[in-house]
Amino acid sequence: MKPIQLVYRSKTGFTKKYAEWIGEELKCEIISIEMWQPDEITTDGQLVFGGGLYAGRIQGLKELRRKVPDLMGRRIVVFATGGAPFTSEGAAQIKKDNFTDQETERIPFFYFQSGLNYEKMGLPDKAAMKLYSKMLQLKSRRTTMEEGANQAILTSYDHSSRASISPLIDCIKLMQRE
Q: What residues contact residue 93 under an 8 Å CB cut-off, 6+ apart?
C-alpha cells in the first residue's frame, strides 16, 4: 500500500474533526498545513487535503499550491467542510470556484457539511457573519434559501457526520489499488 498523508487547515475545528476521522479510517498521518513540510511527500504517495470553506474559498488551498507547485503531478484528493447542507450542485460550484479546468478533471473533490462555531471564530469572522445576517434581515424579499441561511447562521451548530466520509475513503482505497 502506498503511503498516505493527510494535510488540513482548520479554523474552528470542523475540518480537523473530519481529518481525524479520515486519518483513523485510512490509518495515516494527519498534520496541519502550518506544520507540514512538503518534502515529506514521497513521489508515489497519496496526498489528501482538507480545508474549511469561507466565502466560497477552500482555506489553505492557496498555501498548498505554494508548497507543492507540481500539484497536478501528485496523487491527490481534496475535501472541504462548510455549514451548508451538501448538494451536488453546490459541490460542483465549489470545485469550479477553487480549481482550474485541468484540476477539476484530475482531482477528486468531496464536500462535508459541518457547522458554525462562534465560540472559536475570530472577531473578523464573527463580524462578517453578523453583517451577512443583517443584510439578509434588511432584504425585503428573501428567497426560501436566504431565509434558511439567515436562520442557520444565528447560532452555533454542528451537523458533522462521520458516515459522510465513506465516499472519500472508497475513492482513496480505489486509487491505492491503481
A: 56
Q: In 3D, which of 164, 6, 177, 146 has the Cα closest to residue 91?
A: 164
Q: What is the pLDDT of residue 149?
A: 67
Cα separation, 101 vs 164, whole angstroms: 26
Give residue-wise pLDDT tens across range 46-58.
899 999 988 788 9
How far CA 74 is from CA of 33, 46, 77, 124, in Å, comes to 17, 7, 9, 35
Mean pLDDT of the region 65-78: 84
Helix 144-152 to helix 123-138 angle (10° resolution) is: 140
Look at residue 34 in the predicted model and tell me its pLDDT.
93
Amino acid 78 reads V
Strand boundaries in 55-133, DSSP class E: 57-58, 75-82, 109-113, 115-116
CB atoms within 10 A of CB 139: 12
Query: Mutual orientation of helices 166-177 and 14-26 as an angle, nearest 10°?
Result: 40
CA pair distance 169, 87, nearest whole angstrom: 19
Say how many residues make up the chain: 178
Model's pTM, two decimal places?
A: 0.83
Q: Give the pLDDT confidence score for residue 55 in this predicted structure.
A: 76
